[in-house]
Amino acid sequence: MLNMTWEFKLEPTVEQVSEIEHILDVCRSVWNFALRERKDWLNSRKSRVNACSIRQEFILPADAPFPSYARQCKSLTAAKTDFPRLKTVNAQVLQQVIRKLEASWESWRLKRSGFPRFKKPNRMRSFVFPQMLKNCITPDGIKLPQLGLVKVRWSREIPDLFEVKQARIVRKASGYFVILSLQADVDIPAVMPHGHPVGIDVGLEYFLSTSDGEQVKRPRFFNALHRKLRLLQRRLKNKQKGSANWLKLQKKISRVHQRIADTRKDWHFKLAHHLCDNAGMIFVEDLDFRIMAKGMLGKHTLDAGLGQFTNQILPWVGFKRDVYYGKVDARGTSQECPDCGAEVRKDLSTRIHHCHNCGSIKPRDVASGQVIAARGQRVVEMACGGEAAGAGVTQSSWHPLKQEIFGATQGISTHNL
Hints:
6-stranded antiparallel beta sheet
């Protein structure tokens, strides 16, 4: 089973825009009410039975069950009698809002993320249709429940073997988008190790350094538009909150942030394709970039988008290009000599690797990339055998289904975006 997610720009009419905004507002109300119900239950359990809270306490019966997903969906159905506004929105859309809240609540309970927040007006930005009609894709657009036929800019052709399972409508600064979840009943084998190995060391001085000696400087995506963003935010400070001019400036600021994010993602994709042009295997360090983002260089780490490139874009491009992708242990990659394996201790200020054992001298990041490539090859050799890895292995066969699926993505529409 192959699952993919593709995004397309919508061109809704005025009536459809009004309907989308109405659905988002109702979804926001359901989210806030369901979250309030869960917080009240939680606050009523903070104190013991024979004591009261010093601050405040919401009193509920001691045997009141926790408002889980199933109970809140059931109460949502009963609430439609008292709140007719809920009947104006697809029932499955509202259930998906509660399902999303359930996922956020569980993530907080397992200490993976923060506590879910209430959503102010315009903070609910998306909703999902979990079930789609068959043959909902037409040359003119897409048929959506409650919205009807919505015009779409088809930037690429959807292969016939894919079925649209669900559609998420997203409101961004530049307009409305639809994110389609596509599913095909096919089996594409995983990419096998083959060809030339390349180790990649990521950082902030250089965005990445490869084991082949290539070093790519880190572009400052945020700095390019920082002046414009600062001027807009300074003007926003003097506007009355909630006024028409305040909302206009908010949209302009959002457009700048979206432009920064789109520029970063486009550069990441181009760099990933460049790396796959000259490699059969790519190895990276297994790092948690969330820790780096909390330090004093967090702003630069987030601006570079190291996690997005390493954990999302590079594996996906490697799958499409038939390039093997793997992660290795990150401990000590910069303290090891790639030529003799000796330990060479150095702090962050030392940018040149100089091994006193074998006399090897090279840039620190390049040496780390070579250590990463060597570790990756050892892992592959232990898993597949010594003859299954290395530069002497020929290029793996390009799967015919990949040609059919991803070859269609090259037919880019000439429509101006």
